[in-house]
Amino acid sequence: MELYNLVSFFGMFALLGIAWLMSAHKRTMNWWVIICGTCLQLIFGLFIFVLPGGPELFLWLNQVVIKVLNCATAGTQFLFGRLALPPGETDASGQTSVGFILAFQALPTMIFFGALMAGLYYLKIMPVIVKGFAQVFSRIMRISGAESLSVSSNRFVGVEAYLAIKPYLDGMTRSELHTILAAGMATIASNVLAFYVFMLQHVFPAVAGHLISATIISAPAAVVISKIILPETGKPATLGIDIEPFRPDDANFIDSLINGSNAGLQLVIGIMALLISFLGMLSLLDLILGGVGGWVNSLVGSNFIWSFKNILGYIFYPFCLIIGIPPEDAMTAAKLIGERLIVTEVAAYQDLAVLMKNHAFVHHRSIVVTTYALCGFAHVASMAIFVGGLAALAPKRRSELAALGPRALLSATLACLLTGAVAGTFYTSKSILLSR
Predict the structure, then answer these.
(1) b (16+ CB within 10 A) / e for 109-137
(2) Within a domain: residue 264?
(3) Which parts of 301-378 fold into alpha helices (H)?
(4) Is residue 435 part of a domain?
(5) Is there a domain that residue 194 lies in?
(6) What is the mean pLDDT of the chain?
(7) Is 9 a domain residue?
(8) Fewer CB within 10 Å, N side or C side of the chain?
């Protein structure tokens, strides 16, 4: 075990302590959920990084995702030609890539994976997997069946996971609603995971295995942090009950592919709209902040560069040290995590790829821990999407959901950092998930 493994390990408990300081009911802790959830994270991390067979399994999954992703690009290359070719590649006709273009290369893969997930749901494959994860959470952590099912579904279908528990939403407790919001923002869906793999695989070949493991660890991390920040004070109606996922029926397999493709297209358009508006607004706000900051610098004789990314970088800097990122890389990682909070993880992962290409990180450990800590929808835009999506299914709880949104975003952010700390606890320079 290396020094930074110990830093990450104790950092896990520091994050739990920070969550407790922000708790709405400090004396009402469900210690069973906290202890079992923390143990689950450590068991997952131990299996992924250390135990025989674990790293090999995730390297195999890494290769599976890469091969499926290559199939996903067939349609985009047919439509967009050389614009869809990844950097450095040449197609059968001899055309070479013009470089990385987000809109033509990475985003369209989400349409394919949306169709793939819908098809697997129709074939009853995904419901079996989702129920398996849900039973682990409900029986080991003893949270409600509705919470377990939602948390388990999130990693496969994102905000659509709320459809699986639609009949139970009106009767859920505040703590349950908070947990499913936090878990939604602390994890990523499989179609978006493929998108990140596309962006990072050329500079981080084993990234698919790491992102898959991050989605597994993040689920119990989100439950633990959520139940600390807003503990359960009521009695969930589905406590101790395994519930069946609710999903609108497709007419046939082809209909499921069509519906999945359309859902993927809507997601792509939504992400494009968010990136255009949020990056533009951030640039405008940075322009205003820079002007005010320049005046302040002239008064105090400072040369600080005023931008939201830099300011959030200083806020997240101590958190990056806590989760085991070496000081030489902590500020770089902190700016990425701060960027994720206000712009979305898409921009953060894209900047991570650029930093890796330019060898901006001193330690490979920093790249791995940062990759895990960024793996979640923990940003302002996502909060609006998840609260709005849930409110549309449970309009009677709209005001409660709006009030829970910021607290859930805080929980999701801490949960993502906790996932990074778990990865840092077990990652070593000898890990076979290092670069393959």
Answers:
(1) bbbbbbbbbbbbbbeeebbeebbebbeeb
(2) yes
(3) 308-322, 327-343, 345-357, 364-373
(4) no
(5) yes
(6) 85
(7) yes
(8) N
Kindly report the CA angle at 371 between 88 and 155, in degrees rounded to 5?
Answer: 100
For residue 108, the model assigns a pLDDT of: 79
The answer to whether the beta carbons of residues 86 and 100 sit under 8 Å apart is yes
Q: Is the dihedral of CA 181, 183, 188, 191 positive or negative?
A: negative
Q: What is the sign, positive or negative, of the torsion defined by CA atoms of 171, 175, 178, 183?
A: negative
First and final C-alpha spacing in the chain: 22
Residue whose entry in the numeric block shows the structure tokens 């840092």: 424
In which band, very low, low, confident or very high, does the pLDDT at 2 lie, cut at 50, 70 and 90? confident
For residues 112 and 104, give the distance between their C-alpha atoms in angstroms, rounded to a whole number.
13
Please give the pLDDT value at position 434: 47
For the chain, how many structural domains are there in total?
A: 1
Question: Could you give the residue ranges of the DSSP H alpha helices within 81-189?
Answer: 102-105, 109-122, 125-136, 145-157, 174-186
- Specify the amino acid at residue 187: T
> What are φ and ψ of residue 96, in 5° steps?
-105, 160
Range of the domain at 268: 3-426
Whats the size of the chain, residue-wise?
A: 436
pLDDT, tens digit, for every residue of 218-274? 999 999 999 999 999 888 988 888 777 766 667 788 888 888 888 778 767 877 777
Amino acid present at 155: R
Tokens of 257: 């592919």
- Is the pTM higher than 0.70? yes
- Report the distance separating Cα 77 and Cα 149, nearest Å: 37
